[in-house]
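This part of the workshop introduces the protein records we will be handling. A record pairs a protein's sequence with a compact description of its fold. As an example, a complete record with its sequence and its structure tokens follows.

_____
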Amino acid sequence: FPEKREFFQEGATTFQFGPGFSGNDLVLFHSRRIGLSESREEIPIIAGMKLTGKQGPLDIGLLNMQTDHAGTTPGQNFTVLRLKSNILAHSAVGVMMTRNTGSPLGGDNRALGVDSTFSFHRYLTIQALTAKTSTNGLVDHDWSARGRIGWNSDHTEFSAQHLFIGENFRPEMGFVSRLEPDWKGEQRTQAGKMEGEPLDNNV
């Protein structure tokens, strides 16, 4: 579900993890997970706070929300911290941490991820991310990674990317695409190339 609540829409780009990748195969944080039950019923939010800002090259985002209990669903506390810094001329590295209490599997669910984007020589872009979750009762195969290399010039456009999602990777404040009930993780590589006539900058 897209986020339509104004409180969460404001400054939402600060909390994006791994921007630049297409698709929703791996999302570490999605605000619609707050105040919505597993059966997609609304859960009242008691209180919350959000801080976003910039200190020099560093973008900072902090969010904490407390929900009320609803039926058999207990109240939960949701926390997300996002730090991202610009480096070099057109590059950035960042980290995201999430924690929510009251996991369906018991205890807390935590996630930690690192992402980066490097742009070189005008045409070359390299992107990478890795993340790990901690969930009660799930051991090993609880991490994910994604990488992409792209070349985009006037003559040629090329990209290749690889995605890995472990069977027990469970970001409960985000989501991953599970294609079938007995899903055992995912590993996928994609590549593509396009060639064309040089662009006429005078048009």
Remarks:
- The mean pLDDT is 86.
- The longest strand covers residues 109-120.
- The radius of gyration is 19 Å.
- The chain has one helix and eleven strands.
